[in-house]
Amino acid sequence: MTDTAMTGAADLLAHGTATLCEAWPSATLIDRPLRPLAPGMALAGPALPVICQPGDNLALHLAIAAARPGDVLVVDYGGSLASGPFGEVMALACTLRGIAGLVIDGAVRDSAQIAAMGFPVFCAGLNIRGTTKRHPGTIGAPITLGGATIRPGDIILADADALVCLPASDLAPALAAAATRTEKEARMMDRLRAGETTLQILGLNGATP
């Protein structure tokens, strides 16, 4: 992905996932209970999908080596919470390689250290149990996570509200639509501060003339 496109992804995230999904309904919600490892974590960038066998983390080591700056590692770990395949050492490796973040439907370890490092991680839980390093998994093939098909290069956006993805070709129009939605909501809030009600602003039944 070009620097301009990566900037566009970051700009899109600045509007928030909720605004994006309102403005661009074709954005796909990753419908899994994956939460930021620490408050304030957010990420945006092109997906590098990874299939990693539960109980083993060789695929993650391979993905970190293969990733380009700005990539988001999106890992299908089979939903397993029985081990923690990603921790502080890997987070540092990702940071030094310019990787934008990790999304995994599994657990991680070293949560305080990763949070202090500021590397964005969205995961399903925590587990300090170790893993083997024998199964290479699959790097760069489409995966299905939370009902969403995620292909290499799809744009991944995650914040405290949700994780969503959209095709890279949707980035520019989605950004324009999100900006329009943000401006509309800013005008609504100005009207609220001026004394109007949401009923009046939205023209809903029961509004006072």
Automatic annotation (TrEMBL):
Its cofactor is a divalent metal cation. It comes from the Bacteria. SUPFAM superfamilies: RraA-like (SSF89562). Signal peptide: none annotated. It holds the Pfam family RraA-like. This is Putative 4-hydroxy-4-methyl-2-oxoglutarate aldolase.
